[in-house]
Amino acid sequence: MPKQTRKQSIKGKSAISVPVNSTKLRPMVQCYCKKCNGDLVETRTRNVHEAEEYRLQESIERLKRDREKKKNKYKIHNLRSSKSISESVERQPVDISSPPQSHNILTIEMII
Questions:
Q1: How confident is the model over 59-85, as a mean pLDDT?
Q2: In this predicted model, what pLDDT tens digit does every residue of 39-55 receive, in sequence order?
Q3: Which parts of the sequence are annotated with region: Disordered (predicted)?
Q4: Which residue(s) pair with 40 in the sheet?
Q5: Which residue of 26, 59, 62, 93 has the fewest CB atoms within a 10 Å radius of its CB?
């Protein structure tokens, strides 16, 4: 009797048949993102949606912080500007002895 080949030995044994094109059933969970609104989706999909929501929230928070920094920066700048203007006005000497001189005054006469 000749020696059996590998193919023949496999054919002779009963094996559990597994379909070649089988799909894996993945667990379905509820996703409460803005897109799904509580629909059932695969776990992978929910994880992607949660990561996207987290990324968007971080972006919004970063924009708010930047806006506050700019707002505070302008407040400080305006405060410094107003102080320098008021200091320069306070430093100017006022001559009380002479009457005020008016420059570029337009006089309008009414004829009745």
A1: 79
A2: 999 999 999 999 999 99
A3: 67-103
A4: 30
A5: 93
Q: Name the average pLDDT for the chain.
A: 74
Q: Length of the chain in residues, anyone?
A: 112
DSSP H or E run through 82:
helix 43-91
Report the DSSP beta bridge partners of residue 42. 28
Q: Determine the 3-state secondary structure of 37 from DSSP.
A: coil
Q: Can you give the residue range of the structural domain that contains 81?
A: 26-89
Nearest CA among 38, 44, 49, 39 for reference residue 26? 44
Q: Is residue 53 part of a domain?
A: yes
CA gap 99, 31 in Å, rounded? 81
The residues, ordered by sequence, that sit 6+ positions from 43 with a Cβ below 8 Å of its Cβ are 26, 27, 28, 29
